[in-house]
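Take a sample.
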Amino acid sequence: MGFSWRDWSTTLIPGSLFAFGALRTLPPVDAIRSYLFLVTWLTPYIYFFNLSNQITGVDEDKINKPDRPIPSGKVTLAGAQRRWVAALSAFVGVAAYEPALMPATICWILTIAFLILTPGGDHWFGKNNVAMATGTWALLQASWVAIAPTTPKVEVYIYAVSAWAGLITHIQDLRDLKGDIAVGRYTLPIAFGDRGSRIIISFVFIPMAVYVLHLAGIMRLAPVTLSVLHVILMYRVLRMGGPRYDHKTYMFYTYIFCLILAFTATEGMDLKVLGGLIGALDFGGMKVSNGSDNISVEVFDVDRSVRVIELRLNSWRLASERPFWEVFICREGVGQRGKAWAKRLDAEARSGDGGKKRGHWMIGQTHQARALLDWGTRNQADVRRLRSQSLTYPSTANPWNPPRAIFGTEENMRSASARRWPSREPRTATRTRHASHSRITSQ
């Protein structure tokens, strides 16, 4: 703990906050299990970095941070090296267990190697603009994919916050000037002087970082709060209050970092109806994974094949009408049948009205789903009513009926299907529990 407690506000806490965006729709038991697994990756993430940094930076720590374990004599250099081997083994082992974490793991190991083994790691640009950006990307990417697949919006947030961190992390070097000079490190305060570096950080890097957040759509989540916090940060950087004051300024920067991730993770939490609907349906064989603007639901067929259905926010209507959630089928089918209905669905989506009918094929067969998912008019009473109704599902025996979830009554499904497929009589099925997946039995 002595090696890493200083960095919780830049690793464990922000990683946990960002992961909340993926965790928040999971059932409590699954959420706890997924988060504990993430902690098994975050812990060696920071421990491996700090051990690598402190084993190779003893001379600097004797000046800047003499209370650290090695310069204070609490841990021997040989003992720290043994811990380094254990931390690296655990770090790689967790990634080997969950391959989705491997890209972030490799990125972090290469980042640390760059910082410690190359001259670029001692230069202000390589140390912060490059390494801190890639390290933040690894942290946020892993924090999300350990829980659920990323979405395009989540990816944008990850890259934007990583760039933001790479631009502003120069603040940490303001407090370490003496130690960096002693070890020959070429940080921004050494390159441009103490006052010059503060001017560059305040009037170049911080405005650039804010602009990156603006481009990614993060500033709109809390424009006044984030703007005021960055102005305060600029003031603290320019004040020149000494090393202790600069350390508090750096900690203030880490708190802004955590707050930004909290804003991105809680975006859209007012959509309580959507979360209640998913929880109330209680599918037998289903896995739910959440993104910032969609929820993917994997429903297991009688033949154990997987059909993926997405609920996506219809964002193109935000400017003119109340937004609502539409039901889409993912393009990835199962076998030749899947390719056939995916192709047909694409053809219909592209036809007519300048492409504005995209997705309406599914909406045409899920009128009640659309109404229930319109958070402007519905509430939990509708969810309870929906749960009391029968859930119908098209039979997989009919190749012309693409796999889809139908919410509501059989009559609605038949009338909607007849309008779209007049030459085919839709077949329905009832859902029954069987082992760990849902069975489909023809009626």
Observations:
- The CA atoms of residues 346 and 358 lie 8 Å apart.
- Residues 28-56 form the longest helix (29 residues).
- Residues 272-442 form one domain.
